[in-house]
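Lab notebook: predicted structure, single chain.

Context: the supervisor wants predicted structures on file for every construct in the current expression panel, including those that have not yet been purified. This is the next one on the list. No modifications to the sequence; it matches the entry in the shared construct table.
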Amino acid sequence: MSMNNDMLEAYLFEMHSLLEQLDDLVLAAEEAHTFSQDDVNEIFRIMHTIKGSSAMMEFNSLMTIAHRIEDLFFVIREKTMDAISDELKPEMFDLIFQSIDFFREEIEKVETNQPLSTSIDTFLDKINSFSAKISGEAEDEPADEPADTPQHGSAPTAEEAAFASAEFPYGLHVYFDEGVGMENLRAMMLINSVKDYCEESQFDYYPPDVQMNPETANFIIDNGFYIRFRTAGDREEAVPAVKDNGAVRNWQVFDAPEASPAPAQKAAAVQAPVAVEPEPAHVEEPAPAHAAVQQAAAPTAAKQAHVKESLISVSLSKLDSLMAVISEIVITEAQVTASPDLKGLKLDNFTKAARQLRSLTDNLQDVGLSLRMVPVSATFQKMKRIVRDMSKKLKKETNLVLVGEDTEVDKTVVDSISDPIMHIVRNSMDHGIESDRAERIAAGKDPAGKIILSARQTGGEVIIEVIDDGQGVDDDAVLNKAIRQGLAQPGVEYSHKDILNFLLMPGFSTNTEVTEYSGRGVGMDVVKSNVESVGGTVTITSERGKGMTTTLRIPLNMSIMDGMEVAVGDSIFTVPISDIQQIFKVSDINIIQDATHGEMVKIVDNFYSIVRAKEFYQLNGGVDNLDEGVLLWVESGDNSFCLFVDELIGEQQVVVKPLPDYVNNYGIKNYGVSGCTILGDGSISIILDVATIYSSQNN
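Prediction complete. Output recorded below exactly as produced.
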């Protein structure tokens, strides 16, 4: 990866982190109806960082908006929130949220290689107008903006006089923001901008070697950066390059003592002794002081080092490569320890070493998977903003409650479920929560709606629920819509569960009007397909007038799992351990025939249907008598049944391999096949999808 791509990747990572932090901060402040002083300082810092980073990447639209928001919070910081009326606070919160949305849209353009916005004047006017409101000044008399209000025509300081030049007597003394970093490169970028306004032969700058000498950054930090022009007119032409630079904190105009000041500057001009341009050695003078500061700060940094956790950002592609290597190690370990060449041999030392290798392989896998595990909190927090915006636009006061934000899931899985969760939350807001507060009160509910977004980990999967206390699903409306779309047959009686399943079918939507949030034919089928793509399941429950619950059951990771190897004739299948509830033997006398001649067995006061793997997959080999085989009581989501196989081979950690595309084209996934794995002897075992077997058997 090139240096530019490295910088861009770091920039995007920083921007996403800052915008998430900003979103959470402003949401909490809106609930409190005010910004604390810490909030104001933090937003000022975030905008300052966005401004500087965007300027470095030359993303001018982001830099400009961040600069203006930073200026706004400079005013707020000076005046404090107490000086802002309650009438202006909602407008202030909306303005900040609009800026966050603007940044996100621009960042998305960067990620997709689209051109950034150039027409930002309307939004800038809105920011400036609000800034004028809270400052109590007219818009043509802006609040204190340090970067745009230099002290024109002031006499040169002794330091500035030392850097004045007879050949280039008209100077600009520029100071960059504190802590902005890479001051020498920023100085070079500023010079490149000046070239757009002024011929290169008409000015010079000091230090002269900013591009090639990183050490000049220290000089610029301590003394500022000097740009010198042949004429006052050239300087005036170049001033916009300095004013519009997002990294510039302040700038100062000065003239060489022998230069004739501009008419507007004569009254303020004070002559100072002419100084000879310093030798380059002068640049080195501030260095000892800077080094002393660093040395003084060193004990503090060392003191803090032991209390901070060391963190490092790692590309997801590198983690994918690591997991691929670990997967191959797991396969190779099984091939070595279960090699057919070892059958019948008594090798005590080898067996001991094999056990140790298996233990280390398990630990390696656990560590590798843990590196990819991230909390769902980031995804959950995004829903706060969605509920907030929809509450305002739909005029439905709704509170979002988050439960289990610390639950961790594989990074790939988290990325895959972000959109489904967002769609479900929007669905609850649009379809579930009632618009009429009086209707909720009459039903004995709180006037404000409530949505609970929860996550919990059970075994090898995470369960995510979106629960709303709205009006629930109208069975009649759903059934009528399903009939009109040809999904259901008129005159046929459908159970409540069957009607809910219509919501998961492609193109189904109960909205008759196209809105910003629904009614475009993109229904819950999108949720279902996205969740199933990561090996998960979706179920819906609802009670009319009480609300609706959507449950997502998703595997913690998708690459390596614990499986039970079972044999059916000459074929070997793998059943996920997380789906197995119980394993037992049964005789024919314990079997009950249902009305359709299906077989059922009673387990803990409930009856479960039996699926014979031999018949389901139409295999030639395999046992037929139940007392000769084994029953696996399996469960996935709301689907629970017993799978009949010949025998158990044993538990094995397996690497999940996706099926080739040419095999998937035959719809094999619809028959309970989710993938395959390689066994120790090199043979291939089919991994079974319990939920799909059940649905295929009952269709």
